């Protein structure tokens, strides 16, 4: 059986654009004399469509495009076309089905309804879809083929506690299938590419072929890595790496060369990792698609000469081209000369546009306070604070950041460039940013810990060495240091990771978690030795609990931040649901 891998980049509601990509795939498969082409989950409407589904016109258009695909299939009458779409449920239960449709000879020959609906992390399919209960078997090229959709074949929850009597894969096995076609819209999480193979490949033994087709591209805060693959009898026959364009590769299940035998075994991890897409490439892809799909071409950001803004500037240049990136330097009286020089050199190396707008905040602060201190009444808040010498002087520092954000937004509004935020996950967890800092359109490194940002900076030849070597500082006061205000990032990264992603909330639990992470080779800090030494210090437990309390108190700030690329198991966004007003944290 010759199968075409229809790994395409869909957009919710872009029915015309999605249809164009589907037609290109059909043409490619037909030209290569394939027996079938398999597209991703919910190919026609795009994924995630979320509450757009409730608009009846949306469902109508989705079904109209399905008919257009049927009509187009007349060009390839022998080809089986497997696409995802939304189906209406005319019976009881939720109003829709997440379904896969098999088309051949201008008509629908089979329909499969997804059975295992994800309800964790960013997924909420039980909000919309009624689960199916029937298998779908189709004969293609003399082979018995079963259809599944994403979770029907596997899940990345690390458990199998769905409340179903049987799993679709096991039911298909009992039916004696030769091949499984699996349609997927599985977003990227670090380590997930390997996890998919470890779970799915053993299920293909001894002789079942599994054609796993995943979409690629950015959608809001999600990025889909593609990484479609074919396994048979536990062996890897195909794995696509291309993510910058639609992929229509051909795999002959009978004659394909074995790339990695018994691919799911731990000994093969190193060999398979060389075929996985890189984290940096996915950050670029997500930003590129967010900009392009939003109708923008130009980007603007504040560039301080620090490592976070340098990495965001590099990602922006790779996403849309340096000629479309506008980097604004905004030095204040506390900004160092080397920060100015580092930023200028970075912009020269990248080839982006450079601007300088000095920040003179002292006179602005004085003027504001004069306007506010006009009431003599002792009941007035300002008068009370001043009389008690309880003025919040940190506001004088923070107004520098607020002015910078104001100037970036002015550039965006005046000249039509999308503004980027430059905050990372560790800072976001601790609320270490002004309210406006993370309120722009998109935050490319929002889900990266500080050590990950540093790792990327070291790998990019355009980023001057001095940027990632110097101590991190917002330069809001003389001698100010980020780590002095919080904790060293080597410690802070690990605390945030343990608490946010793995819900570790006690210090003994944290030390156990750390030992476990290190034992399996996971990187959770830029300096593991320093981190381990800190855990034995007298103030370690108190510092740990202080940071957890800080993370809890900062939920209100994080809720107001813009979307950013999700790459971890739990990111600050639609997948993490914590009350703003609560007394637990």
Give a short synopsis of this structure.
The chain is α/β, with parallel strands linked by helices and about 575 residues long.
Question: Can you walk through the features of this model?
Answer:
The protein has helices at 15-31, 56-72, 168-174, 192-203, 269-273, 279-293, 307-320, 337-350, 362-372, 381-387, 394-415, 425-430, 450-459, 465-469, 482-485, 489-502, 507-519, 528-535, 540-553, 555-558; strands spanning 2-7, 36-38, 80-88, 96-104, 107-113, 137-140, 143-149, 179-184, 209-214, 216-219, 222-225, 229-232, 235-239, 247-252, 299-302, 325-329, 353-356, 418-419. The protein has 585 residues and is of the alpha/beta class. The protein has a six-stranded mixed sheet with strand order 5-4-3-2-1-14, with helices on one face. Strand 4 (96-104) and strand 5 form a beta hairpin. Helix 1 packs parallel to helix 2. The mean pLDDT is 92.
């Amino acid at each position: 059986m010759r199968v075409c891998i229809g790994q395409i980049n869909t957009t919710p509601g872009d029915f015309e654009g999605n249809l164009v990509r589907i037609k290109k795939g059909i043409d490619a498969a037909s030209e290569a004399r394939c027996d079938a082409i398999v597209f991703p989950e919910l190919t026609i409407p795009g994924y995630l469509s979320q509450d757009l589904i409730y608009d009846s016109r949306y469902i109508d258009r989705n079904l109209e495009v399905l008919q257009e695909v049927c009509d187009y299939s007349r060009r390839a009458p022998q080809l089986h076309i497997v696409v995802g779409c939304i189906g209406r449920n005319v019976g009881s239960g939720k109003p829709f089905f997440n379904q896969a449709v098999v088309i051949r000879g201008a008509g629908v020959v089979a329909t499969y309804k997804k059975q295992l609906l994800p309800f964790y992390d960013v997924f909420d399919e039980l909000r919309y879809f009624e689960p199916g209960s029937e298998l779908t078997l189709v004969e293609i090229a003399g082979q018995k083929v079963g259809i599944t959709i994403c979770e029907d074949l596997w899940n990345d929850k690390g458990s199998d506690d769905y409340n179903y009597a049987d799993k679709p894969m096991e039911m298909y096995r009992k039916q004696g299938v030769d091949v499984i076609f699996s349609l997927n819209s599985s977003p990227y999480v670090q380590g997930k590419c390997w996890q998919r193979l470890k779970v799915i490949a053993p299920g293909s033994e001894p002789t079942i072929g599994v054609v796993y087709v995943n979409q690629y591209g950015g959608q809001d805060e999600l990025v889909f890595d593609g990484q479609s693959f074919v396994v048979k009898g536990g062996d890897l026959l195909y794995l696509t790496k291309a993510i910058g364009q639609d992929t229509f590769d051909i795999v002959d299940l009978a004659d394909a060369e074995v790339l990695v035998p018994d691919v799911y075994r731990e000994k093969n991890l190193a060999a398979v990792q060389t075929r996985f897409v890189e984290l940096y490439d996915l950050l670029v892809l997500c930003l590129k698609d967010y900009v392009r799909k939003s109708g923008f071409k130009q980007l603007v950001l504040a560039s301080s000469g620090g490592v976070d803004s340098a990495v965001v500037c590099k990602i922006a240049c790779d996403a849309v081209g340096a000629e479309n990136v506008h980097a604004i330097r905004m030095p204040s009286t506390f900004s160092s000369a080397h920060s100015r020089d580092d930023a200028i050199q970075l912009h020269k190396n990248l080839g982006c546009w450079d601007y300088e707008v000095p920040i003179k905040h002292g006179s602005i602060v004085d003027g504001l306070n004069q306007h506010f201190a006009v009431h003599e009444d002792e009941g007035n808040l300002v008068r009370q604070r001043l009389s008690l010498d309880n003025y919040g002087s940190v506001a004088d520092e923070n107004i520098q950041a607020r002015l910078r954000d104001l100037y970036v937004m002015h550039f965006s509004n005046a000249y039509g460039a999308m503004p980027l935020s430059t905050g990372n996950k560790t800072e976001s967890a601790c609320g270490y940013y002004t309210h406006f800092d993370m309120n722009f359109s998109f935050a490319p490194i929002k889900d990266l810990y500080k050590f990950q940002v540093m790792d990327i900076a070291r790998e990019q030849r355009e980023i001057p060495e001095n940027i990632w070597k110097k101590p991190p500082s917002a330069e809001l006061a003389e001698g100010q240091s980020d780590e002095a205000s919080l904790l060293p990032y080597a410690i802070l990264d690990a605390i945030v990771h343990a608490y946010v992603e793995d819900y570790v909330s006690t210090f003994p639990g944290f030390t156990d978690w750390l030992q476990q992470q290190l034992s399996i080779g996971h990187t959770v800090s830029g300096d593991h030795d320093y981190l381990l030494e800190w855990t034995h210090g007298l103030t370690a437990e108190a510092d740990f609990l202080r940071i957890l309390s800080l993370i809890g108190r900062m939920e209100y700030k994080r809720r107001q931040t813009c979307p950013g690329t999700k790459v971890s198991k739990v990111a600050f966004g639609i997948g993490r649901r914590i009350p703003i007003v609560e007394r637990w944290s």
